[in-house]
Amino acid sequence: MRGEVGKTDDGVLVIERIHVTYRLKAGEADRETIERVHGLHADKCPVYRTLKDSIDVTTEVVLEG
Question: How many domains does the chain have?
Answer without folding.
Answer: 1
